[in-house]
Structure formats: C-alpha cells, structure tokens
Amino acid sequence: MKKILLLSLLLSGYLLAADSDLDGVDDDQDQCMNTPFSDLVNARGCTIRSLQSDLNYDIILGAGYSQINYASQEKANTTTQTIQADYYNGNIWAQVTGSYFNSSSPSFKQSGLGDTLIAIYYKSLFENGITIQTGVGVLLPTYNSGYHNEAVDYQGSINVQYDLNDRYNLFGGYSYTLVGDKDVPSTLLYQNTQAFYAGAGYTLSDKATISSTYAQSQSMYVGTQTIKTASASLFYQLSTHWFTMLDYRYGLSDSASDQDGSVRIGYSF
Fold first, then answer.
1. For 206, left (φ over 0), alpha (ψ -120 to 50), or beta?
2. Are 40 and 165 contained in the same domain?
3. Same domain, 41 and 149
4. What is the rounded CA–CA span in Å between residue 175 and residue 153?
5. Are residues 199 and 252 in the same domain?
6. What is the pLDDT along the chain (269 residues), one digit of tens a residue?
7. Domain residues for 41?
8. Is the alpha carbon torsion for 175, 198, 100, 83 positive or negative?
9. CB 246 within 8 A of CB 218
10. Residues 183 and 260 in one domain
11. 180 and 97 in one domain?
12. Residue 86's closest CA among 58, 114, 51?
C-alpha cells in the first residue's frame, strides 16, 4: 500500500510539473524544448554539452566476379572476397581493406591474398555544398607475385563532391600510387600509377542512392593499356545498422574485364 501511495505521489508531481523532454527542467521554465536525451543542459534547459559520440565503426564483407586477373592482367574467371573495416571520428576516417581471390583460365590457376590497404582520410565540408576528402595510405605486400619482389606501395588521393540539391550530386577523384615493387628484368617492369574517376549520384529515398561513374587507371606494369570502365552502383540502407552496396562495371578497354560485379553488405556500430 505504501509503494502504491509513493508511486501516486511521484506521478502527480510529474503531472503538476511536466518535463516533456526529460532534461530535468520543467516545461514552464524550459527555453529549449525537445533537447536530445543524451545532452547535458543548463538551468534554462539548453544544451551545454552533447554526450552523443562522433565515433562510428563499420565492417563490410563483399564478394565479386570479374573476367580478368588484374594482378597479372590475364583474361581469367576471377572471384574475390573482401573485408573492410572503417573508423569514423568527426571529419577523420580510417580504413583497412583486405581481399582473397581465386583466378582460373585454361592455362593457369591462382589464388591467394591481395594487397592490404591501410588508409586515413580527412573530410572538409563547405557551406556551398562542396565536400573535399584527402587521404594517404599504404599498400602492404600481402599479395605474392611469385617473383619475391614485393614491397610497400604508398598512395595519396583527393575526392570532391558537389551537392546540386537534396537529391543530385556530382563527384570525382584522383589518386597517385608510388609502386615499390622491384623490376624483374626481361619479365616485369613496374611504374607508378595514377587514376581518376568522375560521376553523378541521385538519392531515390532516405534509404537508397544510385550513381554512375566513369573511371580509368594506369596499370602498374609498363606497356599495359590504361584500364577504363563505366559503372553503376546502388546503396541501400536495410535497417538502422545494416546496409548493402551493389556494383556493376563494364570494360571500355581491352585491359579491363568485359563484365565485372560485386555485392557488399555492411554493419555499422
């Protein structure tokens, strides 16, 4: 009986002095209504500090298929499994990406790890709708070429996005890679590479975005034709934490796979 009476007194006290956003300041004195539950507020009910963290993480698993082995530039049926982990803290973004591939053709079979990318990016936002992202990374030689000539590669990149409005955006990027692998006389000659891409995106809804991209990149092998592709992509938010990405690429040069596609699924924390 005493517990029921105490609960009744508490409820009546809440009704007499309502605090609809539960920030500890009564509505009749609250000058900033509907503050997030995670915010610390002053005596007027206005935010003085947010306890919401800018830290975010995600992990993405993927599977892909192409009709060329890009490591050797030979025509082959190649399947690739990828894993990617991202760490976001405000405008800073760090990434680790690894892969495992199986490649086969009438003349050879090959499988193993691809190179592992470790990179960090910084994103700058401007009021005119432009976002600029710069990054540096290292490619660790977890891929075995068979010539024992693997070395660390270094990469720098810049990416720009311009939001035309709430639905349409244009984007493009450029990267340069310092290839550290040693030449194999009369067999393999390496070169530093550069790549760029440009495209447009359209937001279908608050869950789905599509984009189309043209890209070209130099091969790390001297004398190999520049790789050129056109692609279409779909990003879809499955739920609060789960999302998926679908990619299809069409080769525009003999050095590219005629058909190339991948599906990725990710979970954000």
1. alpha
2. no
3. no
4. 13
5. yes
6. 544 444 454 444 444 456 655 556 666 666 676 666 556 566 666 765 554 556 799 999 999 999 987 776 778 899 999 999 999 998 999 999 999 999 998 888 889 999 999 999 999 999 889 999 999 999 999 988 777 778 999 999 999 999 999 999 999 999 999 999 889 888 889 999 999 999 999 999 999 999 999 999 999 889 889 999 999 999 999 999 999 999 999 999 998 999 999 999 999 98
7. 2-50
8. positive
9. no
10. yes
11. yes
12. 58
Distance between CA atoms of residues 7 and 15, nearest Å: 12
Task: Decide: 257 and 250 in contact? Cβ < 8 Å.
Answer: no
Tokens representing residue 27 in the block = 């509505």
Residue among 138, 135, 160, 162 nearest 151 (CA): 138
Across the chain, the runs of DSSP E, i.e. the strands, are 39-41, 47-50, 55-69, 74-89, 92-104, 109-113, 116-125, 130-140, 153-163, 168-178, 193-203, 208-217, 227-237, 242-251, 259-268
Tally of domains in the chain: 2
Residues 25 and 45: beta-carbon distance below 8 Å = yes
Residue 62 CB contacts under 8 Å (≥ 6 apart), including other chains: 80, 81, 82, 83, 84, 245, 262, 263, 264, 265
CB 232 within 8 A of CB 199: no
In this structure, the answer to whether residues 96 and 83 fall within a common structural domain is: yes
Question: Are 102 and 227 in a shared domain?
Answer: yes
Q: Which two tokens stand for residue 207?
A: 């869950």
CA 246, CA 54: separation in Å to the nearest integer?
A: 27
